[in-house]
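Example 9 (inverse folding). The structure is encoded as follows.
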């Protein structure tokens, strides 16, 4: 499961690049940390909770990015 967590984190970090630079400067590290904690906790409970968190977070990202632009 560690591999899946690492892949999810790398995808999330790559997608954070879609946010405006000023937003990333303020919130990048906090967003990474919260995503990582959420994904790791979910992965400890199994594949379905892990997938639910990843899909929820990645699904919300485009809406949030548009809101910040």
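The amino acid assigned to each position is listed next.
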């Amino acid at each position: 499961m560690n591999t899946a967590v690492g892949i999810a984190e790398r995808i999330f970090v790559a997608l954070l690049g879609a946010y405006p630079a000023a937003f990333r400067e303020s919130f990048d590290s906090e967003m990474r940390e919260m995503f990582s904690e959420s994904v790791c906790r979910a992965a400890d409970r199994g594949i379905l909770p892990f997938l639910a968190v990843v899909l929820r977070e990645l699904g919300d990202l485009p809406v949030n990015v548009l809101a910040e632009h």
